[in-house]
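To whoever picks this up:

The parser on our side crashed when reading a file containing two proteins. I've narrowed it down to the boundary between the first structure block and the second sequence. Both blocks are reproduced below exactly, byte for byte. First block:
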Amino acid sequence: MSAGDKVKNAAEAAKGKVKETTGDATDNRDLQAEGRAEKTKADLKQAGEKAKDALTD
């Protein structure tokens, strides 16, 4: 996984966490769900990149 991909995925996960936390604080279920979805998407991307790296090593 390139450093750029790591940073991009980490930023996406952090953005999702902020949305989820804001949704929790404001009792906004839509924002909570959107934040969880963004975090999950970023986590899946990271897992895919790690698997790809493991296969090429």
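<<boundary where parser fails>>
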Amino acid sequence: MNSNTFRMPAAVLLATGAVALLTAPPAFATGGGGSTGGGEGKAGAVVLRAGLDVGLLNKTVDLPLKTTLNEVSAPATAEKTALSVTLDGVEGGRPVSVLRADVATSKATADKNRAEAEVHLANAEVHVPGLPLLSLIQVENVTSKAVCEAGKKPVAGSNVLGTVTVLGKKVTLSAGGPTKVEIPKVGLVSLELSGTETTSTTAAAAALRLKVSVNPLDLNVAQVEGEVVLAEAHCESPAGPAPEPSAKPDIKAQSAASGTGAGITADANLAETGGGSLTPYVAGGALVLLGAGVTALVVTRRGRTS
């Protein structure tokens, strides 16, 4: 009799529990936090970069001449058209004019989508100590540009337009190798189109690179050696934004844990309106279970009265 008393509420609970389970809206799993963007790119540009050693007639040591013109890192713009440096013991202590130009600009920008650097140099003359009247190089128009976009291959390029004059001599540049200019009692300059270099995330370009070895023997300057680079631009790609999460969650139907019954996929409108194509079957199943519970109750009472 105790066992019959136990089965009666179990049958009723089973029926009511089935209704609650089958009519409850589906539960969705959601990830925490929103999307995060990637890091910004990097870019830089410089109009002129010089690294020279200047030997003096009256001294056994060399004076370093290391300088840049309009060197910028993103975000920045520079438009200085003249550069002078002062070296003790050279040209009577007066400033040495290294570069004069009509246009000498450098610009660099960078954000989370794109990094870009560009340089423009026009009607420019470069001088070294000991040669105040004879320019090391003269150029009409020089440009360099580097662009790095997130998710794209970086690109870079340089252009040298118009005439190029080295130590007073017009030269024709070749992409196949350096052009050497030698002036008796003055020295040797090796000039080349510097070209470009790119990787999967970086790009760099420099228009002209000069290797200098001159011996002016004037203004107390015995020797000038080193390198001069014109119109240099470089960049590094941004990391790029992280992918956005899907607007519609990926919902998969739950399958039965055991037995041979097939999984049930509820209609999407069921969670919104409380009804759907399965509603009649759910109600019918609940009524059957409720009927079974009532029957069990009646049988139990008859057994107790008899």
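After patching the parser it read the second block fine. The helical segments are 2-23, 269-273, 279-305. Confidence is low (pLDDT under 50) at residues 1-37, 249-283, 286-290, 296-300.
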